[in-house]
């Protein structure tokens, strides 16, 4: 190793990934890609169990706990991809040990927990990037410029539509899946707060509502076709203190999975954002005027950039900060404290598949989602036959 190589190895930020399976595997892959360039050193992979493939990789120590990583040496960045209800304690522990954090969404399970985490970050000086990848899309800024330029006229409403398929196996993959609480601890899993959290958060960001103080009311209309505690089909209507109403209509009981879309409606046209593929579409007078795909800033490199900015005394604004998650967490907190989702009668649900691949389909749900999102009305207000009166 040359002296330059040694300096890079010793000064590159050290990174630990906690929760390396499921979605966590994508974080491991991202960390390994950066480690291959010398941008970071991957110094720990933490999980409750490890596969033979994990053990064979040999590129980082396998640890049973985050505390073991701290005991073994310096940890600069902790990536947390663990069950929702574990986020707060692990993030606080990382910050208290002087690390910065990349925290999967949803960040916490209540407004109170967000306040505690923000206070810890402020006291320790640590950075917390929340795992809303869609906020890294360059489309966010480009759409803001389109709106500011007046191309679609004054904004009249925002909407988010999501129609996905999830099987029984999705809800049985872990003890916390589909739970409102687990052993008395809030989990707040469900279609609004987890699978389509990006849709809700992106809608809030495009609507200029990131602080919970900017929200006047949150209306929920929540249902479940699956045998779970949480919602799998819901409408969320958010009325800000100022500005247009935002409505998200979401289901995991569709006939087939389609790409979710967040739309900004104006008096003259609209802008559609297909956030999973960074595609923007401007529609004027009902006709697509233009469509393009933007770039995206990945969350881990952005966090590393912000770390360097802090050291240099420069602007350390994050793509997806804790403060930016305030309004989203208010929606989550409303879900947490709301009555349990209404069970859709079994005779109004069709079931397809067998075993873990079995899944419910709510007839006409795609049409209902589209109508709810477009009109800003809940399923109940639409007079849906299975809706709670």
TrEMBL record:
UniProt name for this protein: Predicted dehydrogenase
Domain Gfo/Idh/MocA-like oxidoreductase N-terminal: 15-132
Domain of life: Bacteria
Transmembrane annotation, as ranges: none
Domain GFO/IDH/MocA-like oxidoreductase as annotated: residue spans: 143-272
Pfam families associated with the record: GFO_IDH_MocA, GFO_IDH_MocA_C3
PANTHER family xref list: BCDNA.GH03377
InterPro entries found in the cross-reference section: Gfo/Idh/MocA-like_OxRdtase_N, Gfo/Idh/MocA_oxidrdct_glycsds, GFO_IDH_MocA-like_dom, NAD(P)-bd_dom_sf
UniProt keyword annotations, A-Z: NAD, Oxidoreductase
């Amino acid at each position: 190793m040359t002296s330059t190589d040694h300096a890079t190895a010793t000064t590159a930020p050290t990174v630990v990934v906690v929760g390396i399976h499921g979605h966590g595997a994508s974080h491991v892959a991202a960390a390994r890609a950066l480690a291959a360039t010398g941008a970071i050193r991957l110094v720990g992979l933490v999980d409750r169990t490890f596969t033979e493939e994990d053990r064979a990789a040999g590129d980082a120590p396998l640890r049973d706990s985050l505390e073991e990583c701290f005991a073994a040496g310096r940890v600069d960045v902790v990536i947390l991809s663990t069950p929702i209800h574990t986020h707060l304690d692990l993030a606080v522990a990382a910050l208290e040990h002087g690390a910065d954090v990349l925290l999967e969404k949803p960040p916490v399970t209540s407004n109170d927990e967000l306040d505690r985490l923000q206070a810890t970050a402020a006291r320790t000086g640590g950075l917390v990037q929340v795992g809303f990848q869609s906020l890294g899309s360059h489309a966010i800024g480009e759409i803001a410029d389109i709106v500011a330029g007046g191309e679609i006229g004054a904004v009249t409403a925002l909407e988010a539509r999501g129609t996905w398929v999830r099987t029984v196996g999705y809800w049985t993959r872990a003890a916390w899946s589909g739970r409102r609480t687990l052993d008395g601890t809030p989990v707040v899993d469900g279609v609004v707060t987890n699978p389509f959290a990006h849709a809700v958060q992106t809608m809030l960001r495009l609507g200029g509502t990131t602080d919970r103080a900017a929200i006047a009311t949150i209306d929920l209309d929540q249902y479940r076709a699956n045998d779970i505690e949480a919602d799998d089909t819901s409408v969320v209507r958010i009325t800000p203190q100022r500005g247009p109403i935002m409505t998200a209509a979401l289901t995991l009981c569709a006939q087939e999975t389609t790409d979710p879309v967040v739309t900004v409606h104006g008096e003259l046209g609209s802008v559609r954002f297909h956030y999973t593929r960074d595609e923007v579409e401007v529609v004027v007078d009902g006709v697509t005027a233009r469509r393009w795909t933007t770039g995206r800033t990945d969350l881990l490199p952005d966090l590393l950039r912000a770390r360097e900015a802090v050291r240099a005394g420069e602007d350390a604004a994050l793509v997806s900060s804790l403060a930016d998650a305030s309004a989203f967490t208010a929606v989550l907190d409303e879900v947490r404290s709301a009555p349990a989702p209404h069970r859709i009668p079994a005779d109004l649900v069709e079931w397809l598949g067998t075993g873990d691949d079995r899944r419910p389909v709510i007839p006409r749900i795609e049409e209902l989602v589209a109508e709810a999102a477009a009109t800003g009305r809940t399923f109940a207000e639409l007079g849906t036959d299975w809706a709670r009166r």
